[in-house]
């Protein structure tokens, strides 16, 4: 009887573990299947590098370059905010903060990470956009810059918390060795601890990037939504995610428009897949380097 | 014991928060000698040697009373430059801890942080120190490989060489062979005997035979107190305290 129970549990957990694999494969198959029709109407090159996105025109145009470009701009822009703030907070928490400050700051960052993205979007739309419009004297508050800023704030906790983990993985013995040789705290930090945590910090940044690239609600609300190549960072843009979110409801099921949106999803999926693989490779190397195993 | 005193500890009490880890320790450590600290785990021997380069400063809530004089100067004095003290008092840790950098970078680190930029000077010092630590022949063809590729024993000798680069006066060994095999251990012991001609050496060890083999003086500690301190030969043959005798004969430990 006990034997049977054990077998049963084994199977139950095996099935549960298999579930994520099934979901992943299911999603990939759906993305491919639904986006295939658009590739039979337009060439891959045309879709990827065309700059005209007019899905409701006759004949419709599905050039995705503008959307991909917008995603890249907004994501890289958000990095300008979340890398310095995130890595800086991690260094502060790890190196300078007292025990009490740390006990206070770490949960704050976790809470920041748990705020629903619609609230960030709301905050960006109602507060940040009008503020920037007034302060910087720009025609529209909802633009690539605002989206970058709000996305950057959103991705900060991811970067800060993972970078802090990377720093705390550095064995204490490295710090002791450095100090025992007569290095001061700053030298120990910049010459030993940060280089040792370097790939871990890179992983943190890349995962922050992956969060920013896939973010939908916020960019839909604050990026402005114009599917044209922006002339400056203060022009409105329309990233891939918000395009799908905004148009999926209107696209007729099975139409070329519908299929084009799936193609955007496919490209987005591939981008995040590549980013995550890079992060995984780097983080594996990091753990090996510090002798932590995998 | 009429030798030149390098370090004098006077009435040292040490606390981790409210727990007292060292009680009224008074001891003289002599120049160019090997002084061993033995005693069961938790007796405070590592805590004591970590006071000598002020590594305990890193522990929050740690507090020291009493004076430690090195060459007659109080190392806990407000005017003492900790960075300079740590350059003069090198330390080799229980577990080999090379940086995840190349062998050469590990060696050059101590010089670079001290602001030395002359490349040929650095190279010369690195080579000399590797030779002194009897490691040069093992690594001369792979100075630019990662230090983590070395065996445990080689890593520990690299750590010794790394601390020789900055020309310390005292070297503290905190159970340097705890994680090494017997052959590597013997090499480290031979090295210690070699190094005492140029340096003052303090070693903490769990291994009584090791203390007998390498040290000139031995201090036996128990529960934060210094029970007995004398020439190693006397400690091992005619200990004055009953407790020392019992520990050495394996009655407790």
Question: Oligomeric state of the chains?
Answer: heterodimer
What name does the CATH topology of the largest domain in chain A carry?
A: MetI-like fold
CATH superfamily of the domain at 5-97 and 170-248 in chain B: P-loop containing nucleotide triphosphate hydrolases
Strand tally of chain B, please?
Answer: 10
Domains counted in the coordinates of chain A: how many?
A: 2
Give the integer mean of the pLDDT values of chain A. 90
Helix content of chain A: over 70%
Class per helix and strand makeup of chain A: mainly alpha
Q: Count of helices of chain B?
A: 10
Number of contiguous helices of chain A: 11
Structural write-up:
The complex is a heterodimer of chains A (294) and B (253). Chain A is mainly α and 294 residues long. Chain A folds into two domains: 2-41; 53-261 and 268-289, Orthogonal Bundle (MetI-like fold), CATH 1.10.3720.10. Chain A is 77% helix and 1% strand. Chain A has helices at 2-41, 44-49, 65-96, 99-114, 117-136, 144-169, 172-180, 185-214, 217-222, 240-247, 256-289, and strands spanning 53-54, 61-62. A two-stranded antiparallel ribbon of chain A has the order 1-2. In chain A, α6 (144-169) packs across α8. The model of chain A has no long low-confidence stretch (mean pLDDT 90). Chain B is of the alpha/beta class and 253 residues long. Chain B has a domain at 5-97 and 170-248: Rossmann fold (3-Layer(aba) Sandwich), CATH 3.40.50.300. Chain B is 36% helix and 26% strand. Chain B is built from ten helices and ten strands. In chain B, α3 (103-112) crosses α4, α3 (103-112) runs parallel beside α6 (152-164) and α6 packs parallel to α7 (182-195). Chain B starts with a strand and ends in a 5-residue tail after the last helix. The mean pLDDT of chain B is 92. The chains are: A mainly alpha (294), B alpha/beta (253). The interface between A and B is medium-sized, with 22 and 27 residues.
């Amino acid at each position: 009887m006990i034997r049977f129970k054990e077998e049963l549990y084994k199977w139950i957990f095996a099935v549960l573990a298999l579930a994520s694999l099934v979901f992943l494969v299911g999603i990939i198959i759906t993305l491919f299947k639904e986006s295939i029709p658009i590739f039979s109407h337009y060439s891959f090159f045309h879709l990827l590098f065309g700059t005209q996105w007019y899905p409701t025109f006759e004949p419709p145009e599905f050039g995705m370059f503008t959307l991909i470009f917008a995603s890249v701009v907004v994501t890289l822009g958000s990095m300008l905010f979340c890398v310095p703030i995130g890595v800086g907070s991690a260094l502060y928490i790890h190196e300078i903060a007292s025990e009490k400050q740390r006990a206070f700051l770490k949960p704050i960052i976790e809470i920041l990470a748990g705020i629903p993205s619609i609230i960030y979007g709301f905050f960006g739309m109602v507060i940040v956009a009008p503020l920037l419009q007034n302060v910087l004297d720009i025609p529209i508050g909802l633009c690539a810059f605002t989206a970058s800023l709000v996305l950057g704030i959103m991705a900060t906790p991811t970067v800060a918390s993972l970078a802090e983990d990377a720093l705390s993985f550095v064995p204490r013995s490295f710090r002791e060795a450095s100090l025992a040789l007569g290095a001061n705290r700053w030298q120990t930090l910049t010459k030993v601890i940060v280089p040792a945590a370097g790939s871990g910090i890179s992983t943190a940044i890349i995962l922050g990037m992956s969060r920013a690239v896939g973010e939908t609600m916020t960019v839909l609300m604050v990026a402005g939504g114009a599917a044209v190549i922006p002339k400056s960072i203060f022009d409105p843009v329309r990233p891939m995610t918000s395009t799908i979110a905004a148009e999926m409801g209107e696209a007729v099921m099975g139409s070329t428009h519908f299929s084009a949106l799936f193609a955007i999803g496919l490209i987005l999926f591939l981008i995040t897949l590549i980013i995550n693989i890079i992060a995984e490779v780097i983080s594996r190397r990091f753990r090996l380097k510090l002798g932590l195993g995998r | 014991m009429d030798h030149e005193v390098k370090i004098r500890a006077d009435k040292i009490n040490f606390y981790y928060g409210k727990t007292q880890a060292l009680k009224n320790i008074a001891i003289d450590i002599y120049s160019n000698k090997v002084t061993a600290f033995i005693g069961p785990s938790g007796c405070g021997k590592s805590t004591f040697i970590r006071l000598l380069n002020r590594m305990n400063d890193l522990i929050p809530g740690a507090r020291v009373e009493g004076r430690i004089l090195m060459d007659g100067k109080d190392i806990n004095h407000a005017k003492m430059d900790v960075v300079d003290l740590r350059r003069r008092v090198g330390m080799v840790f229980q577990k080999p801890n090379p940086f995840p950098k190349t062998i050469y970078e590990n060696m050059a680190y101590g010089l670079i942080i001290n602001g030395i930029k002359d490349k040929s000077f650095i190279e010369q010092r690195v080579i000399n120190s590797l030779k002194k630590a009897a490691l040069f022949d093992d690594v001369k063809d792979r100075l630019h490989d990662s230090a983590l590729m070395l065996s445990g024993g080689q890593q520990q000798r690299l750590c010794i060489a790394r601390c020789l680069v900055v020309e310390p006066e005292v070297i503290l060994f905190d159970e340097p062979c705890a994680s090494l095999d017997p052959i590597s251990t013997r090499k480290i012991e031979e090295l210690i005997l070699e190094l005492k001609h140029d340096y003052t050496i303090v070693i903490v060890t769990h291994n009584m035979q090791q203390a007998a083999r390498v040290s000139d003086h031995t201090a036996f500690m128990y529960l934060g107190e210094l029970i007995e301190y004398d020439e190693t030969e006397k400690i091992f043959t005619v200990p004055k305290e009953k407790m020392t005798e019992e520990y050495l004969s394996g009655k407790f430990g």
